Amino acid sequence: MERKVKIAQYGCGKMSSWLMRYAIEKGAEIVAAFDIDPAAIGKDIGEIIGCEPLGVSISDAKDADAVLQATKPDACVIATRSTMKDLEPAFTVCAQNGINAISTCEEALFPWNSSPDITKKLDALAKAHNCTLCGSGYPDLFWGTLVTNLAGSSAKITTIKGSSSYNVEDYGIALAIGHGAGYTIEKFEKEIGNYNSLSSDEIKELVEKGEYIPSYMWNQNGWLCEKLGLTMVSQVQKCVPCTHHEDLHSSTLGMTIKSGDATGMSAIVTTETKEGITIETECIGKVYAPEEFDSNVWTLEGEPETTVVVNNPATVELTCATLIQRVPQLIDARPGYVTTNNLPDNQFMVKPMNYYIHSL
């Protein structure tokens, strides 16, 4: 591809400053931007990125259809919410205009096992308009291809165990409450832990109806199974409260969490496969004590046993860099909703982005 790749940015919050800057640094051109926040609408994207004006103003998201028709980007980067239900309108307007779209939404990485109806609808729409929809970000590599590449060095695998922790203080009050932060143990067990005894079929039914929102690892285990060629037999999730031996103040919740109360939770997803490999993954989201920090740990049990530990990962920057470097593969991919387990492993772009695109 000889010209610059044209990109639209949908959602101009915190993540977008990295996403747009990385896209520009990789040789792309931002031709449009959208948001729903009145305080953001009308701003030049340079103000969001932290540089000089770039001549592109943020449009109201309700005008996305008209702006996309006028600017005709090659791809749209969506950084808004974390569920497919929330994301459906943005994906839909892109697909209706035949524009490839990729999102930071965690569920978007592998939504086939959590929002199958929405995903099937988007898949059909994208195929009808000859474009590709996808999700990427931190889990794509650090919970995905990192693990499957390690698996390629194993002679035998019996169990894959993964654990990733994050501070709910960094992600807002809705996420903190969703993790049970500040709850008494009794309230946690009543409102969050009450699903722990359900069978695989019972949980699957509730998830697919949208009556139970699983952790990010629910989707990740589906991604890993497909990438590794494993056949899922059962999958369950259990949510366990995290506690601390001292009181902890939460600026996000505006309260002090008493010693012994829930500071958040660990959501453990266990997947059994026909091939005899168990995948056990854990998301730990809580209000951190002063000495705690983000970590990402994966262990492959078998022959040999291998453990990889990543402490203090720069999750936001890694998310944005991973996604931007997926854009050439997004554009070159077949039409439909295509998850990244069906794409080549991500590639560091040492040349401008357009160099890596072959379909335009």
From TrEMBL:
GO MF annotations, alphabetized: 4-hydroxy-tetrahydrodipicolinate reductase
CDD domains found in the cross-reference section: nat-AmDH_N_like
Keywords, in A-Z order: NADP, Oxidoreductase
Coiled-coil portions: none
GO biological process terms held by the UniProt record: lysine biosynthetic process via diaminopimelate
Pfam families: DapB_N
Keyword Oxidoreductase listed: yes
Chain ranges of the Dihydrodipicolinate reductase N-terminal domain: 5-102
Protein name, entry field: Dihydrodipicolinate reductase
